[in-house]
Amino acid sequence: xxVRKFSFENLEVYGKARSLVSDVYRIQRxxxxxxxxxxxxxxxxxxxxxxxxxxxxxxxxxxxxxIHFIEISYGSLMEVFCELQTACDLGYxxxxxxxxxxxxxxxxxxxxxxxxxxxxxxxx
Length: 124
Hints:
Elements (H helix, E strand, L loop, with lengths): L11 H17 L10 H20 L4 H27 L5 H28 L2
Helix pairs in contact: 1-2, 1-4, 2-3, 3-4
């Protein structure tokens, strides 16, 4: 049986973002119980938004819309970064855990920017 993939599944940035989502879920499991519906919920939703907006944008017809959803993914990535910094500041995760994730954020940010620029060039 041949499995057809959606176009976003072939994006390297999508795979890296999926990996980050898994990391975020693992880390937030160690947050205090009182943060399950606070910071824990917020960071999970923002992480999922990165991949969800890549997927949604890929289904749009216009390049302008595709770029818009990439920009939303980028914003969600920055939100997760900020929320994990806060979690680190509050002692919900270690500096080591945070610093281990930092390169993933940098890679994904560069890839999202590159994807946006690539689409902008094709739209000219």
